[in-house]
Amino acid sequence: MLGVANAQKTNFFSDSFGDGTFKELKIKAEKGDSTAQYNLGLSYNLGQGVAKDEVEAVKWWRKAAEQNDADAEYNLGVCFAKGQGVLKDEVEAVEWYLKASEQNNPKAQYNLGVCYDKGLGLAKDEEEAVKWCRKAAEQNLAEAQYNLGACYAKGKGVVKNTEEAAKWYRKAAEQNHAEAQYNLGFCYDNGQGVVRNAVEAAKWYRKAAEQNKAEAQYNLGVCYDYGQGVVQDDKEAVKWYRMAADQNQAEAQSALGVCYNDGKGVAKDDVQAVYWCRKAAEQNVTDAQNNLGVNYAFGIGVAKDYVESYKWTMLASTKGSENAKKLMTILKSKMSAEQIAKGQKLANEFKPHKTSDAIN
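Above: the chain sequence. Below: its structure as tokens.
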């Protein structure tokens, strides 16, 4: 599940909010009006009509929460979870989330589910996490719907059910939740919980890609590359690969390198091919490592270097690349024992860069 949500930001104030409005609000709050206390806390939290002061925000939210204002209880939970305006205390956060959850506050229910999922402030319990996530999802909270779908997809805290996963992904996706749109596209792409449908897959990938979801941009590039659910278009493939590659999406970097190598959808450019191939290889993409090995072996887009070639080829071959294994045999016939030892050392010392997190 995702992390703790930000404090609720209901816009109580009009665009013309000024000192007069703030003073009136404070008078009401000091007289014990719980709604005024909540909104006074909100004004201090956002710096609306008064200097931003997180400690004062907590003070007034606490007053409202002590009168059972659910939104104030939820916001207090967020403050304790994040250490915002108060010392961080995950146990105290859970107590306030629970109070708000029992009043059916969906954000509090979702965050309580997160706490159970991660063991924050209480014992980790995946079934309880699903219970509270479901309550929020049934109130149409998109984050909860997405995460409930993920629980069903993985069988986490609930019996694995791909149809239920797709159902909840769809509910969140229809609220424009990018990760849910991507996952629903993945379901259609692979026939998980729904009938396989390339057109629907491309449709949902596009929606997520247009929200800058890198994995969706890459997958949409694949759709255009191979004409899956869309009319085949090399230039469109390159466009989406590049958008994902610029966000450090490793598979997209590898694919973009291939496009430059082959002159597919873009002018052939061996130097650019190596540039993108290297970025993917450094993130441990096997095909990119094999291709980079070829580039170094034959001096394509880079100076010929058997040692570097051996390093990348060895990395790819250890992960089962048959092409890399064949190239290693060729390289061994051309290299000295010292060069081979150096290449092996470089491969053994290799540490991949962090890859982007794909959801599937």
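Residues 251-355 form a domain with the Serine Threonine Protein Phosphatase 5, Tetratricopeptide repeat fold (CATH 1.25.40.10).
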